[in-house]
Design goal:
The complex is a heterodimer of chains A (328) and B (545). Chain A is mainly alpha-helical and 328 residues long. Chain A has helices at 2-36, 41-44, 54-63, 70-82, 96-131, 134-153, 156-170, 183-213, 216-223, 228-265, 271-280, 284-312, 315-321. Chain A contains 13 helices and no strands. The chains are: A mainly alpha (328), B alpha+beta (545). The interface between A and B is large, with 56 and 59 residues.
Chain lengths: 328, 545
C-alpha cells in the first residue's frame, strides 16, 4: 500500500512541478506579448479606436493599476493566477470566472468526444487492416494507409466546410451551426476535430502494432487457434496502444487549440472563440484566464495519460521503481 | 507580400464552398406570408461587448441596437431628416439654441416616460467620461447644456453652431434609452438596454445569440415603418456566426433567415434568378473605403510622390474582378449615399507614365537591384499596415494588386496584415505611409473628422482620425465654416469646396462604398434605415410572398 502511494507520488510530483512551470511560462509570455503589442487601456476604454477623454483615461489607469511599475504589474498578475482570481474582463465588464465557467464545458465536451471518436476511428481502421485477408486485404491496407495520411494533414477549416456542404446543406442530416449541446449539432464539429487526430493516432499505432504482431506472444496465440480479431483485441492492440496513450495527452492539447477553428466555423461557444475575441481587443484578464485554464487542462490530461499508461502496461511502474530490472 | 497569401487561398476555398452551398439549395419554399414567428438573423460582424451603443459606439452595436433603441430624428435614403422620437425642432438665428418637441405619450418598454428629462439624461450619459463613449461622445460634443423646458420640450445650448447636429442625433450611437435603465449602472445596462424600439432585449447569451421579443405597445414609427402598431414578428434571434461560409450555408439550409457580410461569390449566387434569396445592397454612409497616404512624413510629404502613387495604383480592374461586379469604383471621398458627395474621375485616372515622370521630378531618379526607386540612398518604401479584422479577403487581394501596380513604377509597398490592436499601434506610432480605415458617420461632416488638422492629435488611447495627416489651414477653415452653416445650399457648396481641396491634395485614393450587404431567404419586408444602413424588421414577415 505504502509503495503504491509512493509510486503515485513519484508519478505525480514531477508532473505537478512541470505544471507550475508551464503555467508560469505561459503567464509570462502572455504578459510580455500583450504588453509589447500595445496598451491595455484601449480595451478598458471601449475597444480600439475609442476616443476616451483624459479624465476617463486617468481614472481607468488608476483603477486597473496601470500606473504601477511593470514589475509590480507582472507580480500582481502572477498572484492573480496563483489564486485563480482573474478579475473582470476589460471589454465585457463581467467577471472572468463567469466567462470561463460558461465556455469551459462546451470546449471540454467537444474535445473529449473528439478524442474518443479519434480512438474509435483509428482502432476500427487498424482492425479492418488486421483482419482483411488475401488480395482484398492488401487493397484495404493500402487504402487505409492513404486515408490515414490524408486525414492527418487535412486542414480543419476545410474539412469542416466540406462536412457542412455535404451533410448539412446537401443531405440535411445535421444542422450547420451548433449552439448549446444538442446531439445532432455536435456531430459535425466533433468529426471535424477528430479526423486529423485519428489519422495521427492510426499512423502511430500502425507501427507499434506491426511490431507487436511479429512478437512471440502473438504467434503463440495464433498457434492456439485464436482468431485475428481476438489476437488484435486481446494481445497486439494492448501492446500497441502504449504510444497512442502517450500521444493522447498531446492530442488533447491540440484539440483544445483546434477548438478555435471549429468553434468559429460552427458558431459554437467555447474557450477557443473566447480567447480569439479577447486577444483581438487585448482583453488581458480574459486572455490570462483562458490561457491558464487551458494550460492546467493540458497538464491534467498529461497526468491522466501517464496514469493510463501504467494501467495499460504495469511493467512501466516496475521499470521506473527499479530501473534496469525489466527490459522493454 | 505574402503572409496573407495562404490565408487568402484558404478563404477562397471556404467562400467557394459557401457559394456552392447556396446554389445547391436554390429552390425556394413557398409558404404563406403571415405574422408571428421567430426570425433568425446571423451576423458576421464582431459580437458587441456591450449592447448599449452609448458605450464605445461601433457598427455591430448600431446593427443590433436598431431593433430596440430609437433616435430623436430619422433620415430617409435621400438624406432628408425626418421626425422620430422628436416631432419637431427649431433653431435660433445664431445656431446656438436648439429646441426639440418630443412625441406625446411615448414610454420606454420599462414604462418610464420619454420626456425632456429623459433626453437630458441620455445626452449627459453620452458626455460622462464614465460611460466610455467615443462615437456618441463626438456626436454631441458641441452640446454645452441641456434644459428641460417642460416635459415635452428640451433645449440644447451649443458651444458653437453645428450643422451636423441632426445628422449626429439620427445615428444609433446617440439613440434614446430609459433613464431608469441607465441608472442601473453600466454592467447591467450593457446586458439589456431599454429603449422604445419595436423589440425588447430578452437575454444575451455571449458568443451565441441575443434574443429579442416584440414590443407589443410599439408606437414610435420611424421613416421605414409601413403600418401602425407593433411589428409582425414575435421574436428575433440574433446569432453570431463569424465564418462567412458557415453563414451562407446556414442561410441556404434555412437555419437562419437573414445574414450580413456575405462574400462577393455568395452575393453573385444569390443575385441569380430563382435563387429565392433577396439581396439588399445598403452601402454605409460617411466616407468611402479608401487608401490614405500619410502626408506627414517622407516620402509622401511630397505631393508629386503622392500623385505618382495614385496614378500608378490602378485599382479599378481589381475591384471589378475581386468583387465580381457587386460594387463599383468610387472617385469621391464621400459615400455615394451622401447627397453632398462630389466625384471627380480626373484626379484618380491611372497613368503609369505620368507617375514615372512625377517620381523623376521629385528626385526619385535612381533604382536599386530590386527595381525600387531610390533617392540619396533611401528606398521608395511605403509601409501599409492592413487590419485583418476590417479588411476582408477580397480587399486584401486588391491591396496586393495595387502593391504590384505601384511596384511597376518603382514603389516598394510593404503590406503588413495585423490584428486590429497592432494596426492601431502602427498608426499611433506613425509607422505607416499608406492605410485603409473605414469610418461611418451620417452626413458630410465626416470630412471634418477625417481631414481637419485637429484630427492629427491622437486621443489618449492613441487613436486619431486624420490618417492622411492633412494640415491645410484653408481646408480647416472651409470645414469649420461648413460645420457652422445651417443654410443647406451654402453648406453643400462648402463641402464641395472641401472635397475639391482634399482630392487636389492627392492624399486619398477612393476605392468603393463601404460594403454593407444583406441576404434574406424566407422572409419579406426587411429594409434598412437611411442613417447608418442598419436593417429594421418592423415590416418583416416570415415566408415568401
Amino acid at each position: 500500500m505504502r509503495t503504491a502511494l509512493a509510486r503515485l507520488c513519484r508519478l505525480l510530483l514531477p508532473r505537478l512541478g512541470s505544471a507550475v512551470l508551464v503555467v508560469w511560462i505561459t503567464a509570462t509570455v502572455v504578459f510580455v506579448a500583450l504588453r509589447a503589442s500595445g496598451d491595455p487601456l484601449e480595451a478598458i476604454l471601449g475597444g480600439p479606436g475609442s476616443q476616451a477623454g483624459p479624465e476617463a483615461t486617468q481614472r481607468a489607469t488608476e483603477a486597473y493599476g496601470l500606473d504601477q511599475p511593470l514589475i509590480m504589474q507582472y507580480l500582481a498578475q502572477l498572484w492573480r493566477i496563483a489564486t485563480l482570481q482573474f478579475g473582470d474582463s476589460y471589454a465585457r465588464k463581467q467577471p472572468v470566472a463567469d466567462l470561463l465557467a460558461e465556455n469551459l464545458a462546451p470546449t471540454i465536451l467537444i474535445a473529449t468526444l473528439a478524442l474518443l471518436l479519434a480512438w474509435a476511428l483509428a482502432v476500427a481502421g487498424l482492425l479492418l487492416a488486421a483482419t482483411a485477408r488475401g488480395r482484398l486485404g492488401g487493397l484495404v491496407r493500402a487504402g487505409l494507409a492513404g486515408i490515414e495520411t490524408v486525414a492527418s494533414v487535412v486542414p480543419q477549416f476545410f474539412l469542416g466546410a466540406v462536412l457542412i456542404l455535404v451533410f448539412a446543406n446537401g443531405l440535411g442530416w445535421f444542422p450547420v451551426t451548433s449552439t448549446g449541446s444538442s446531439p445532432a449539432g455536435l456531430v459535425l464539429p466533433v468529426v471535424t476535430l477528430a479526423v486529423p487526430i485519428a489519422g495521427y493516432l492510426a499512423h502511430v499505432l500502425h507501427g507499434s502494432l506491426a511490431e507487436a504482431d511479429a512478437a512471440p506472444f502473438a504467434t503463440t496465440a495464433r498457434s492456439r487457434g485464436a482468431s485475428e480479431t481476438r489476437v488484435f483485441f486481446r494481445h497486439t492492440l494492448r501492446h500497441a496502444a502504449l504510444p497512442g496513450v502517450a500521444l493522447s495527452g498531446w492530442a488533447y492539447g491540440s484539440l483544445l487549440s483546434g477548438a478555435v477553428v471549429v468553434e468559429a466555423l460552427f458558431a459554437r461557444p467555447g474557450l477557443g472563440r473566447l480567447l480569439l475575441e479577447a486577444a483581438s481587443v487585448r482583453d488581458v484578464p480574459v486572455v490570462v484566464g483562458v490561457v491558464t485554464v487551458i494550460a492546467l487542462l493540458y497538464v491534467a490530461v498529461m497526468v491522466l495519460a501517464a496514469l493510463l499508461e501504467h494501467v495499460v502496461d504495469p511493467r512501466l511502474a516496475v521499470a521506473r521503481a527499479a530501473p534496469g530490472v525489466v527490459g522493454a | 507580400m505574402t503572409r496573407s497569401a495562404p490565408r487568402s487561398f484558404a478563404t477562397l476555398i471556404a467562400i467557394t464552398l459557401g457559394a456552392l452551398a447556396l446554389s445547391s439549395c436554390a429552390s425556394p419554399d413557398v409558404t404563406e406570408s403571415k405574422g408571428g414567428g421567430t426570425l433568425v438573423y446571423a451576423t458576421g460582424d464582431a459580437e458587441p461587448t456591450c449592447l448599449d451603443p452609448h458605450v464605445g459606439g461601433n457598427y455591430p452595436q448600431a446593427l443590433l441596437s436598431t431593433q430596440y433603441l430609437e433616435p430623436l430624428v430619422g433620415r430617409t435614403s435621400d438624406g432628408t431628416i425626418t421626425p422620430w422620437l422628436a416631432s419637431a425642432w427649431e433653431t435660433s438665428e445664431d445656431g446656438l439654441t436648439w429646441d426639440f418637441t418630443l412625441k406625446e405619450g411615448v414610454t420606454f418598454t420599462d414604462g418610464t416616460p420619454l420626456d425632456a428629462e429623459a433626453v437630458k439624461v441620455n445626452i449627459e450619459h453620452l458626455q460622462d467620461p464614465e460611460t466610455q463613449s467615443s462615437t456618441g461622445y463626438l456626436a454631441v460634443e458641441k452640446i454645452a447644456s441641456i434644459e428641460a423646458v417642460n416635459p415635452s420640450h428640451v433645449r440644447f445650448q451649443l458651444s458653437a453652431p453645428d450643422s451636423a447636429l441632426l445628422e449626429s442625433l439620427s445615428q444609433q450611437w446617440t439613440a434614446m434609452q430609459s433613464p431608469a435603465g441607465i441608472a442601473r449602472g453600466m454592467e447591467e445596462n450593457c446586458q439589456a438596454p431599454i429603449g422604445t424600439g419595436p423589440f425588447v432585449v430578452e437575454k444575451w447569451t455571449p458568443q451565441q445569440k441575443v434574443t429579442l421579443v416584440r414590443n407589443d405597445d410599439y408606437r414610435t414609427h420611424g421613416p421605414e415603418a409601413d403600418h401602425e402598431g407593433a411589428a409582425y414578428l414575435e421574436r428575433i434571434e440574433w446569432r453570431f456566426i463569424p465564418d462567412a461560409a458557415t453563414r451562407a450555408a446556414a442561410l441556404s439550409s434555412g437555419e437562419v433567415d437573414v445574414i450580413d457580410n456575405p462574400q462577393p461569390t455568395t452575393i453573385v449566387t444569390a443575385d441569380k434568378k430563382g435563387s429565392g434569396i433577396e439581396h439588399i445592397n445598403a452601402p454605409r454612409p460617411g466616407s468611402v473605403n479608401r487608401i490614405e497616404l500619410n502626408s506627414g512624413q517622407a516620402p509622401f510629404d511630397d505631393v508629386r510622390v503622392r500623385e505618382a502613387f495614385i496614378r500608378a495604383a490602378d485599382p479599378a480592374p481589381g475591384i471589378e474582378s475581386l468583387y465580381l461586379g457587386t460594387t463599383a469604383r468610387s472617385t469621391s471621398a464621400l459615400a455615394s449615399t451622401e447627397p453632398t458627395a462630389v466625384s471627380n474621375k480626373a484626379f484618380f485616372a491611372t497613368d503609369p507614365e505620368a507617375a514615372k515622370r512625377l517620381l523623376d521630378e521629385a528626385g526619385w531618379t535612381t533604382s536599386d537591384a530590386d527595381g525600387v526607386r531610390t533617392k540619396d540612398g533611401k528606398r521608395l518604401t511605403v509601409r501599409f499596415p492592413v487590419s485583418t479584422n476590417q479588411s476582408v479577403a477580397a480587399e486584401q487581394s486588391l491591396f496586393e494588386q495595387i502593391q504590384a501596380n505601384a511596384a511597376d513604377v518603382g514603389f516598394e509597398v510593404i503590406l503588413n496584415p495585423v490584428d486590429l490592436s497592432s494596426w492601431y499601434g502602427a498608426l499611433g506610432a506613425n509607422e505607416y505611409e499608406a492605410v485603409s480605415a473605414p469610418y461611418t458617420k451620417v452626413g458630410p461632416d465626416v470630412l471634418r473628422i477625417l481631414y481637419h488638422s485637429d484630427g492629427i492629435v491622437p486621443a489618449p488611447s492613441g487613436y486619431f482620425a486624420n490618417h492622411a495627416q492633412l494640415r491645410d489651414p484653408e481646408l480647416d477653415a472651409i470645414l469649420d465654416q461648413a460645420s457652422a452653416t445651417l443654410d443647406e445650399t451654402k453648406r453643400a457648396e462648402l463641402y464641395a469646396d472641401a472635397q475639391q481641396r482634399i482630392m487636389e491634395s492627392f492624399t486619398v485614393l477612393p476605392l468603393y462604398d463601404q460594403q454593407n450587404h444583406f441576404l434574406v431567404k424566407g422572409a419579406t419586408g426587411v429594409t434598412t434605415l437611411g442613417t447608418v444602413a442598419t436593417p429594421t424588421f418592423i415590416n418583416a414577415k416570415l415566408g415568401d410572398s
